[in-house]
Amino acid sequence: MGKKEQKSGKKEIPKELFDILACPLCKADLEYTKDRKGLSCSGCGAKYPINDGIPVLMPPK
Ligand SMILES: [Zn+2]
User: Fold this and answer.
1) Measured in angstroms, how far is the CA atom of residue 30 from the centroid of ligand 1?
2) Longest dimension (CA), the chain
3) How many domains does the chain have?
4) Within a domain: 35
């Protein structure tokens, strides 16, 4: 409560980008992992890393 988005420190995905992100496997919405270092799919549970503020949506092989 009361915490605002921090502009310094680790980068976060811009909201405009976050809004259009979808899992490449099942097209479900993505959400931050608990440590906010990556994204996880709300549908199939696939995990994706965030590289310098850019989500890397490479389907696992
Ligand atoms: Zn998925």
Assistant:
1) 8
2) 41
3) 1
4) yes
Q: Cα of 4 to ligand 1 centre, how many Å?
A: 29
Domain-located, residue 36: yes
20 is a domain residue: yes
- What is the C-alpha separation between 44 and 5, in angstroms, rounded? 28
Domain enclosing residue 33, as ranges: 15-50
User: 60 with 46: CB under 8 angstroms?
Assistant: yes
The pLDDT value recorded for residue 58 is 81
Distance 28 CA to ligand 1 centre (A): 5
pLDDT tens digits in sequence order for the chain, 61 residues long = 666 554 555 678 888 988 999 999 999 999 999 998 999 999 999 999 998 888 999 865 6
